[in-house]
């Protein structure tokens, strides 16, 4: 057994006993060792030991939830990485960068580490690594809300990957492009990018998780068009993909599935879905939040809806997609509540509606005006007296339609007679 292996084994023991500082010191001993071997077999073994030490120390920092130490490890490993093949270097750096994903509140540290690694890759002429890191950076900038900067990187990568005809990488870039355009509310360009991504996916083997991401984005864009039935189908496929890989994003897609059922007012389907054997294991506050919203919507209760939004504020407002659709849901529920209040009246005071629904008179008046203009119901606002006057739905006058048909037919007959008279002349 080589000396490096002995040190790594000792580091593993220290890690198992939660003596993390000791484990860190031993792993760094191997990482910082100088390559002085000439025999190729020994050289390969030494590099393999260094790779093991780098990745396992990264996992130690991941366990400790220490983003700063992980970032420092990437910096400190660059001298050792200079002895590896380019493909191996790319694999190690990419793996270390991905360790940040499991560390809470580490997005800023991850972005900083990726930026520094890109600069190092450019200086070291590691084009493949630079491209992979730029792709990762664009995805993280999207998460951070820095859309324009992410889009700028994407534009350059698209040009490069199209020249290389690298369909696999092109697919990932086009997917991120679609997500960024959607966040910028440029839905046509988001759809175009997604169509390109799906075209690329059809010509290669698409990994399960990447296919799940594609299906999720398809569901999101169909939901934007209010085609919730199709959106649910895509979300279901996405959920199956994430669930099969035990990916934590499964619960997010499950929330989207429940959202589409609520938007379609299929509350019974929500309960059936929540009792599914694949869904039961995801029971959490996120799912309780969606259940509370579906119950409030089924009861047409604005107060219950607002109470659910307050109780589960973090779960419901942290996701921009759910938040956007809930704004529409709230508006729809407000309409239903107003209709529920006024349905038994022919004339009702606005102050009474305001008191019952729990909103001020100006808000109620504005919403009722919009509903009258949209012909949700027929009525008029008497602002002088503060009343709402409700009319029955007007009936179409059949005689008017019949008269129009008669005039149209007579016009046709006259035109025909005119043509025949012209022919005689």
TrEMBL record:
Keyword rRNA processing: no
InterPro entries: 26S_Proteasome/COP9_Components, PCI_dom, Rpn6_C_helix, Rpn6_N, WH_DNA-bd_sf
PCI domain location: 227-395
Any matching Pfam family: PCI
GO terms under cellular component: proteasome regulatory particle, lid subcomplex
Swiss-Prot/TrEMBL keywords: Proteasome
Stated family: Belongs to the proteasome subunit S9 family.
Name of the protein in question: PCI domain-containing protein
Organism: Australozyma saopauloensis
Lineage summary: Eukaryota, Fungi, Dikarya, Ascomycota, Saccharomycotina
